Amino acid sequence: MDKELDWSNLSFGYLPTDYNVRCYYRNGKWGEIEVSSSDTINMHMAATALHYGQEIFEGLKAFRGKDGKIRIFRLEENAHRIADSAKGIRMAQIPEDLFREMVIKCVQLNARFVPPYGSGASLYIRPLEIGMTARIGVKPANEYLFIVMVSPVGPYFKEGFKPTNICIMREFDRVAPRGTGRWKVGGNYAASLEAGERAHELGYSAVL
Fold first, then answer.
1. What is the pLDDT along the chain (208 residues), one digit of tens a residue?
2. How many CB atoms lie within 10 A of CB 10?
3. What are phi and psi of 21, to 5 degrees?
4. SS3 readout for the chain
5. What phi and psi values does residue 32 have, to the nearest 5 degrees?
6. Which of 103, 87, 54, 79 is nearest to 182 (CA)?
7. Residue 196 — φ and ψ, nearest 5°?
8. In sequence order, what are the beta bridge partners of 36?
9. Positions marked catalytic
10. CA separation for the pair 208, 192 (Å, rounded)
11. 129: CB partners within 8 A, 6+ apart
């Protein structure tokens, strides 16, 4: 266990860990699982992830129980959702068994970063898929990179599990009714940044 971390006072932010886990989709199939200690990736400047928004992700957590065992919350549900997101924006779908294997492997490799029971903190797991093919015309990629990275975090809201103030703003639309709103794509979050920052400036925790 990392003695330098103040587990009870972690923010919800990124802290580097030991490893991440990667897998490439090429020639119509997923390749071998790779373990990396690098926190960067090589990407073509014309990759579809950068130009046409072919980027999806998930967020789930691992907790250390009172018995010391590490448990991942709703892994299968996140596997189903990222596969649905991939299908929605014409990306290669990650098989559930591959998703499960990579998430568990990444947590195991970074087990020393799973906060102790009772600290109020958790190990946040961020699976991410991006389109890697260089495109100038608007067309889905045929190569993809799937990464699982982790970071120890505190509560999402600084209030923890106490009630928090939410701001309602009607002058912004986060997603179009028949657009990408049903999928967990990065563009939906880009659309929320301005409203979210305004809400924080006004003293609210989040915005609807």
1. 445 788 888 988 999 999 999 999 999 999 999 999 999 999 999 999 999 999 999 999 999 999 999 999 999 999 999 999 999 999 999 999 999 999 999 999 999 999 999 999 999 999 999 999 999 999 999 999 999 999 999 987 666 667 888 889 888 887 887 888 888 998 888 888 888 888 888 888 888 8
2. 20
3. -125, 135
4. CCCCCCHHHCCCCCCCCCCEEEEEEECCEECCCEEECCCCCCCCCCEHHHHCCCEEECCEEEEECCCCCEEECCHHHHHHHHHHHHHHCCCCCCCHHHHHHHHHHHHHHCHHHCCCCCCCCEEEEEEEEEECCECCCCCCCCCEEEEEEEEEECCCCCCCCCCCCEECCCCCCCCCCCCCCCCCEHHHHHCCHHHHHHHHHCCCCEEC
5. -80, 150
6. 87
7. -65, -40
8. 20
9. 184
10. 9
11. 55, 56, 57, 82, 86, 91, 92, 94, 144, 145, 146, 147
Q: CA-to-CA distance for 90 and 99, rounded, in angstroms?
A: 18
Amino acid type, 59: G
Task: Please state the pTM of the whole predicted model.
Answer: 0.90
Q: Name the one residue in this structure whose structure tokens are 């014309």.
A: 46
- Distance, in Å, from the CA atom of 146 to the CA atom of 131, rounded to the nearest integer, reads 9
HSE, CB side, 13 Å, CA atoms: give it for residue 115.
23
